[in-house]
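FAQ: What does the model actually see?

It sees only this:
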Amino acid sequence: MDMILDGKRRKLTANGVERLDRKNPGEPPCLGEVAICKIWLRQFGQPRATLNRRCTSYGYKHGVEKWLSARAGRYGGHISNGAFIQAALELGYDVGLSKGALNVHINMASESFKAHHRYIKRIDKRREERKKEKTQGFRPLG
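And it is asked to produce this:
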């Protein structure tokens, strides 16, 4: 996907936003990862009027990975930076380049990540409670 950011043409790849003059641009984002990011954004994303410069797409993509792992109860898989950016763009979020060439800032409220962290803590707490229930009354042989 080609785009214009900060007055320059850029290409969105799985790595993130790359310059068009790069000799070997990366592959496009995986559509399955984009779909997962859209689910996360719909559940936790809270748009705001201006770009949030406290977090980049790279940080948010790690949040999606943690969310996947928490839901699965094990490692949930990799999400690319570009997949998160594409999902945000398709859902109407604004983006602006961060100082790191591949990452972008998004007009998403910090509360989005707070809600995400509360959700992860609830899942972890439930998992621990279930683990305790299974081990209660267990007596080793011997």
